[in-house]
Amino acid sequence: MPQTIVEKIAQAHMAEGPNRPLRAGDFLSIRPFHVMTHDNTSAVMSKFKGIGAKKVRDAGQLVFALDHDIQNQDEANLKKYRSIEAFAKEHGVDFYPAGSGIGHQIMVERGYVVPGSFVVASDSHSNMYGALGAVGTPIVRTDAAAVWATGEFWWQIPRTIQVVLEGKLPDGVTGKDVIIALCGLYNHDEALNAAVEFSGPGVASLPMDARFSISNMSTEWGPLVGWFPVDAVTLEYLRGVHQRLQAMGIERFTEADIARWAANPPLPDSDAAYAARIVLDLNQVTPHVSGPDTVQVMQSVAEIEKKKVAIQKAYLLSCVNSRAADLEAAARVLRGKKVAPSVKFYLGAASAWVQQEAEKRGAWQALLEAGAIPLPPSCGPCIGLGTGLLEKGEVGISATNRNFKGRMGSRDAQCYLASPEVVAASAVAGYITGPSRFADRTPVREYQEFASGGYAAERVEILPGFPERVRGRLVFMPQDNVNTDAIYGKDYTYRDDMTPEMMARVVMENYDPQFAERTRAGDVIVGGFNFGTGSSREQAVTCLKAKGIPLVIAASFSQTYLRNAYNNGFLCIEVPALVKRLREQFASEIAAKEKTIIPGEEVDIAFTSGTLTWHGESFVFPPLGTVPQSLVIAGGAENVVARKLGLIGQLRN
User: Where in this chain does the record put each Aconitase A/isopropylmalate dehydratase small subunit swivel domain (predicted)?
Assistant: First the structure.
């Protein structure tokens, strides 16, 4: 049976699954090539120990890279970092201390990602690894603990969308502009929870850094994988990685491996079945910005610069756009100029190696001379940590990948996303603008769905022990794209002292500050489309459990959110017809911008019949698959792993 590249690479890394060629919708157990964790390693350690595991199954799979909260020098954080380092030494795990760089950059520049490999991280921007011809996809903390203990985790193969790139980017247009265009053009969940396979004659014209940016920020677009084919550009990058590591006495792959990838690159079958095809003419892409506060809204720079949107802060940092080529591009814009007095311009390299390279080329000094404020190579402001956050009423422009309200500082600030060149030009001007003039045009939308490439329907029965029904007061959250920052804010994500009671008090704080006070245990949440989009933080599920919420209904979910839910034994179901009905019923409240609507009536979910009843009306929903059911019955993936290890007495609910 013909296969997409994701199906092929998953087949090559399958530990347990169907005894046939894999296809979209199949559940299987994957043995990944590598798994990276960052500051959340401490949380994974707790889960690993909670399972009852004593020894890492394969230390060679694991990579630890501290990168999120490295500016935080309080004793609690330093103690956490020391405990992670001690665990790494005890188990023989590769460890990169604070200051080494952002974990995703470490993974690609240190040779942990190679063509045809399956590489994961407990972070949502793992899609970036697809730029090197690998399947890179996010997992969650419980998955990471499972890999540590057993070498494996469960996965469902996503449908694949083919994105055909034609033409060539005009001078001054970047990979960041490509992914901003894709996010803005296809902003109705066309690519949600899919794998995206880039192809076409335009790929060859894209430099490696552009591919990294596109794959990385494909996360915000909605896909779980952003894969590029292996070509001369890929091989040249890998040779550079090999030579640098070899000079340090490290060999993660050989010249023979590079020759093998050149001769036999991983490719999909020519007659593989795709769920959809998108065609993008690179010639038509111009500099664009995303936002404010969402990647689903885009404006051309030619359009927005007419409005002279004043900015107070600018950012050139993060795993999407602070590699050497990005820093050089910004330096070319800034040489001989100064950052506007009204603007603070924050600068951080993707890694210590990148900063050294930028210093060697003179780009780093040029940026500092223009007035950039240097930060250590880390996530920092991109995740809302450390120096330089947006204050109330401020507007920022950033070369990062995510601009959810409140993510980079105050909820009463606004953030736009753009390429390094546009960020640099805006920092000088004091308002959003670009370094060059372009026509005000947007690429043509070209999208076609196919019947043959979707999920194969699974015949499902309700397993013994799975809940027959759930009843609760309906709590309607009408907004689409309620993200993980909204559900559980950045201020609490990397705190290890949050008790369930504390988590319950801050649930939905960034969505509706009154939510925790107005809701109660037993309530059933109903959300819109793409509920739980954003990061892989597990607390976006566990805070709802802590609040006593038994179930979330939505029109659709982020797949990463569903992973977290099932791994924690938490119920989620998709009932788009109910959401449509509620929007009709509460149109006036929605028009009045009410964020949380509590009509007072109960919703009754009967899993045995697959029906939901509200207000005397019935709605049908498909049954959960056997794997999610099994996880819910077991009380979560930790208990499943404990059983697998024979640690039945250690099980927890």
Answer: 459-576
Q: What is this structure's pTM?
A: 0.92
Confidence at 345, pLDDT banded by 50, 70, 90: very high
CB half-sphere exposure, 57, CA atoms < 13 A: 20
- Per-residue pLDDT at 453: 66
Which residue, 620, 624, 599, is CA-closest to 610? 620
Angle at 495 between CA 494 and CA 498, to 5 degrees: 135
Q: What is the pLDDT of residue 104?
A: 99
Q: Which domains does the chain have, with CATH numbers?
A: 31-156 (3.30.499.10), 288-429 (3.30.499.10), 469-650 (3.20.19.10)
| Cα 273–Cα 277–Cα 278 angle in degrees, nearest 5 | 160
pLDDT of the residue at 456: 57
d(CA 392, CA 6): 43
Beta-carbon contacts of residue 67 (< 8 Å; ≥ 6 apart): 38, 39, 98, 100, 101, 102, 103, 106, 377, 378, 379
What phi and psi, each to the nearest 5 degrees, are found at residue 310? -70, 140
Whether the pLDDT of residue 268 is over 50: the answer is yes
Instruction: Supply the DSSP string of 349-399, one letter for each residue.
Output: -SBHHHHHHHHHHTHHHHHHHTT-EE--SS-GGGGT-SS-PBPTT-EEEES
Distances (CA, A) of 421 to 109, 289, 405, 527: 23, 12, 23, 38
Tokens standing for residue 206: 């894209």
Region 360-367: mean pLDDT is 98
Using CA atoms, how far apart are residues 433 and 112, in angstroms rounded to an integer? Answer: 38
Q: Which residues are CB-neighbours of 74 under 8 A, at least 6 positions away?
A: none
Contacts of 511 (CB under 8 A, 6+ apart): 477, 479, 482, 486, 487, 595, 596
On the CB side of 514, CA atoms within 13 Å amount to 8
User: What percentage of the chain exceeds 90 in pLDDT?
Assistant: 92
CA distance 142 to 146: 6
For the chain, counts of helices (H) and of strands (E): 24, 27
Answer whether 390's CB lies under 8 Å from 372's CB: no
Mean pLDDT of the chain: 95
Q: pLDDT per residue over 426-459, tens digit each?
A: 999 999 999 998 988 889 999 999 986 666 555 6
Give 600-616 pLDDT, tens digit per residue: 999 999 998 999 999 99
CA separation (Å) from 537 to 121, 487, 510, 630? 12, 10, 15, 22
Q: Give the model confidence (pLDDT) of 171-215 as tens digits.
A: 999 999 999 999 999 999 999 999 999 999 999 999 999 999 999
Whether 168 contacts 282, CB under 8 Å: yes
Candidates 434, 453, 159; CA nearest to 306 is 434
Which residue type occupies 297?
A: V
Preceding amide of 292 cis, omega within 30: yes
